Amino acid sequence: METEIFDGGSQQDIEKAAKILKSGGLVAIPTETVYGLAADALNSDAVAKIFKAKGRPMDNPLIVHISRFEEIYRLVKGVPHKAKELADRYWPGPMTIILPKSDIIPDEVSAGLPTVAVRMPSHPVARAIIEKTGRPLAAPSANSSGLPSPTTARHVMDDMNGKIEAIVDGGPCDVGIESTVVTLATDPPRLLRPGGITHEQLEDVLGHVDIDPAVLSQLKEGERPASPGMKYKHYSPKAEVYIVNGSLPSFKYQIDCDLHEGDAALCFDGEENELPVPCLSFGRKDNSLEQAHSLFDDLRKFDDMGIKRVFVRAPSAEGVGLGVYNRLLRAAAFKIIEPPIIYGLTGQSGAGKTTVGNELKKKGYLIVDGDLLARKAVEIPEVLNALVAEFGKEIFDSDGKLIRSELAKRAFANEHKRQRLNKITHPAITKLTLETIKNNFTSEHKGVIIDAAAIFDCDLPKYCTKMIVVTADEDIRAERIMKRDCIDRETAMLRINAQKNEQYYIERADIVIRNNGNESLSDQLNEL
């Protein structure tokens, strides 16, 4: 079979599409949500062709599309007042209503259920085709079953070429995810699939509307889907999809701690350059309409790029975002990652960050000693070789062991040398830190604290949701350093004056902990 492409702007091509549908054929048509694979909804043989072309399970019901509200009366056993109110408010548009079906609906359409799903699309081409055909059209998404739904004619051609008679090109779809599905066959009404009409908008008309548990979780074993899109895995590209909950720093941690060739990220606008893998963005973080519009197109692009794993920034599940999150859950087959919340902890010498770290450990946080890992980093053979090449063999003693004081003398001789030291050691410190978190963090921990004096000089802050800075008065810091290191006040002050001032730390802090000894550290840390 050769699949033809028709122009949605051509009246002649609309008539050709209608002719095919009248004769029992299949035509992909544009709607405001996604492209639908249409057949005469009252012709059971034609409807059966949809399942065959898509490879769709027969227990997955279809949605019947109409062009005028009056057409619903012969499709259902009765139209309650609430259905009319919903239609008056949101039809034509991305909303499907489920009601008890009439006898003219074939079982193939309803998948044997006693109900039928009906909607009136707002796309002018879709409505023109329905009207010209003179029959209601069953039209699930025009893709191979389980793959991301098509939002352009090219997407349809990729999946359906040679399987259907024609595709009507009506341009890109506006909404980008399938219609909201609400059933009025239950009391109270129930949202079965979120979409462009939100749960809140439904309740504006209907009062209380339940949200079906399957919106955010899997169907129970043996449970039949009451609506399209409720299957365990759906809308999924060939690449494995993982939803990553949490902040952008948590997202960066998750990617970097488990980085493989063939990884990619689906992120929010403006985050692309902050991630170490190929990225596509699917809208601004606070704009779920943009995310819905781009989602399926981006998932298909990853397959075109040959990507093997996609890590996705979890969107908000509010408003239209609930529909976006619902589609991602199915695309990921419910593979959700909850990376640890990571905080950075630092401060000037003598401020007492170790004391604060111990307090946080009592509160249930995993403490990662960044200063200890920095010492381990310079014991790695590759790092040692690079240090010798940069600073000379004199940094080793006669037994071949690193003389740390000699390395420090040479590395801190000037700013250029210090930067060279950082360039050699920081990647190793970062790798050790990520490995330590990955190997030691458990669900019993509240989060992770990276305790490091020089944390602002390295890459570790990019993984930190917040930076905690510990401060104390200069005299108190000097007394602590003298006692800790058994040195006199003059030497302690030399160390203090060699460090960056308190304002440097405070300007980079999200949380400042004052630790002069007379404050309650526990109360201050409750902000976490």
Describe this structure in words.
The chain is an alpha/beta fold. It has 19 helices and 21 strands. The strands form three sheets. The protein has an eleven-stranded mixed beta sheet with strand order 1-8-2-3-7-4-6-5-9-10-11, with helices on both faces. Strands 14-13-15-12-16 form a five-stranded parallel beta sheet, with helices on both faces. β2 and β3 form a beta hairpin. α1 packs across α5. The longest helix is centred in the C-terminal third of the chain and has 26 residues. The model has no long low-confidence stretch (mean pLDDT 93).
Q: What order do the helices and strands come in, and which of them pair?
A:
Blueprint lengths: L3 E4 L3 H12 L4 E3 L6 E5 L3 H11 L8 E3 L15 H10 L4 E6 L6 H4 L4 E5 L4 H10 L3 E2 L14 H8 L5 E4 L10 E4 L6 E4 L5 H8 L3 E2 L28 E5 L3 H10 L5 E5 L11 E3 L6 H17 L4 E5 L7 H11 L4 E2 L4 E6 L5 H10 L2 E5 H8 L3 H11 L12 H8 L3 H26 L6 E5 L14 E6 L2 H12 L3 H10 L3 H6 L3 E4 L6 H5 L3
Parallel strand pairs: 1-8, 2-8, 4-6, 5-9, 10-11, 12-15, 12-16, 13-14, 13-15, 17-19, 17-20, 18-19, 20-21
Antiparallel strand pairs: 2-3, 3-7, 4-7, 5-6, 9-10
Short account of what is shown:
With 528 residues, this protein is of the alpha/beta class. It has helices at residues 11-22, 44-54, 81-90, 107-110, 124-133, 153-160, 199-206, 248-257, 288-304, 321-331, 353-362, 370-377, 381-391, 404-411, 415-440, 474-485, 489-498, 502-507, 521-525, and strands at 4-7, 27-29, 36-40, 63-65, 95-100, 115-119, 137-138, 166-169, 180-183, 190-193, 210-211, 240-244, 263-267, 279-281, 309-313, 336-337, 342-347, 365-369, 447-451, 466-471, 511-514. Helix 1 crosses helix 5 (124-133), helix 13 (381-391) packs antiparallel against helix 15 and helix 16 (474-485) packs across helix 17.
